[in-house]
Amino acid sequence: MEYLRRQSFRNKLKVAFLAVIVLSVLMTGGLSYYISAATLEKNALKLTQDTVVRSAQIVDEKLNKLMLIMMTFMISQPFYDMLKDAASGDASRYYTHLNDLDNVFSQARIAEPLIQSIYVFTPIGEFYPSSMNRNRLTAFEDTVLYARIEQEKKNLWVEGHEDMLFSGKERVISLILEPIFDTPVSGVYIVVNIREDGFRKLVQGNTAEGASSFLLNADGNTVYPLKEPLVRQAVETGDLSGMMNRSEGSQPFDLDGQTYLLNYARLGIADWTMTTIRSRADVLQDMVYVKWLIAGVTLAAFIVTTMISGAFSRYLLKPLQGLLKVMKRVENNDLTARFESGSGDELAQVGFRFNRMLEQIVVLIDEVTEAQTHKRTAEIKALSAQMDPHFLYNTLNTIYWKLKLKQIEPSQQMVMSLSRLFQLGLNNGQEITTMSKELEHVRQYLELQLSCYEDLFSYEIHVREPEVSSLSIPRIVLQPLVENSILHGFRDLKNGGLIEIEIYGDEKRWTIAVRDNGRGMDEAQVRALFWLESKKGYAVSNLIRRLRLYYGDGAEIHVDSAPERGTEIRISLPKKGVHLDEQS
């Protein structure tokens, strides 16, 4: 903040342009990124969910086809003949049935390549393809398959396992069916083993890139072993089945500090759920391009704004820079300098008022020069001329800095006060004015000093008898007194100063009292106030000389002051004096 405060107004204006534009771009870009990310995630979830539903339909169609093949198998004539003998317990034609069913087994396996083997368990013996080698070490009644079908008494699917019925230990997924027959038949079961790896490829065939698809059973366990560590870890948490509280859907979940998207759909033929896990970061990886795009737009906006803000700054500050050059010439006592501008904005108006102020100053100087042709008037004007412009440069400098800080209205008020001050001080070339104009003059002077020394002091003006306002008085009498209070009395003060001006009188005389609560003066300083000239030529001694030129010994001046007790200066004048019409 301190660095920005030390910069020029032009640089501050450029920074303001840059801040507004860049902030707007960042806010727009951030909002766009947020909306894009939300939309992309929503669309990705919907697309992934559609893919999962489609995959579930494909698996359902495959399993339905398998069921249809087995239904065809069960209504074939060889199977029907075998089933009649099994129902009656006639095992005499066992080998005939075994030979007849072999062709039906082959047809089923040709119709569905996923079928690894078919096994039929009956009371009269086992039936299976002749090309398969039966594992004689394991009886069907000793397998988990038999325990499951005996327990549930319905057609069921058994998750991936090693083939216990045939040699080779192939990994299969089993379908166990009870036959369809005219009369109930007990103890007859059909086991269809399908290849686990083929089924796995079927499940993962339509998976989106970066996603992992698998099947879960009703207990939340996988239908076949999983190779992906991420999927195994997600399943081992045991939270997936609890999250799938609808027939199908999608939702995010956290794992190891990362967010993943879970999509699932129920199968219709089996109590299984098609499930897909995908990293949220993979879904939103396209947003990296959006980030870089926003960064590029921000950089481009910054470069363009820098160039545009420089051009705008030069254009907007051109009148102010012109006014600054005129003020510098005035500082070097070149009162012929004038502000020129084709614009009519506030800065141009300040410049034009400054021109009028300079013209008034030139007129004032000309009048003072002309007045020097008369001896008495020359001395009076020489003394008063020392006092009229004594604070001009300080006031102009204050106006300059207020303009530089873009404090336009206070600068305009100071210019108007300064103009009014000189108007009252000039008094149309007359040295005698009224007390009311003199009070207005000192009021304008105090307002200007309040602008130059903010919060340093306040002032009060009290006129006890209204008729005093119309009395005649030499111009610029009060200004040196209040100036003494400001420059000397309040030298060590930061704030809290008070100047009181009181006008009162009686039948013969009237008194002007100026009091302050400043540092005060000792006796030596009071004597110097009467006799010594100030280094700047603005001492109260000048005022004393002027008053004696007008009133002679009738002007009385009293000073009451002590260190740290403030100062009071009283000027007592006779009511008889030179009237304005006598000086015209």
Automatic annotation (TrEMBL):
SUPFAM superfamilies with a match to the protein in the record: ATPase domain of HSP90 chaperone/DNA topoisomerase II/histidine kinase, HAMP domain-like
One Gene Ontology term of the molecular function aspect: phosphorelay sensor kinase activity
Subcellular location(s) per record: Cell membrane
Membrane topology (UniProt): Multi-pass membrane protein
One Pfam family of this chain: HAMP
CC terms in the record's Gene Ontology section: plasma membrane
Keywords, comma-separated and alphabetical: Cell membrane, Kinase, Membrane, Phosphoprotein, Transferase, Transmembrane, Transmembrane helix
Major location (coarse): membrane
InterPro entries: Bact_2-comp_sensor_kinase, HAMP_dom, HATPase_C_sf, HATPase_dom, Sig_transdc_His_kin_internal
Domain HAMP stretches: 314-366
Transmembrane segments: 292-317
Name this polypeptide is given: Sensor histidine kinase
Species name: Paenibacillus lautus (Bacillus lautus)
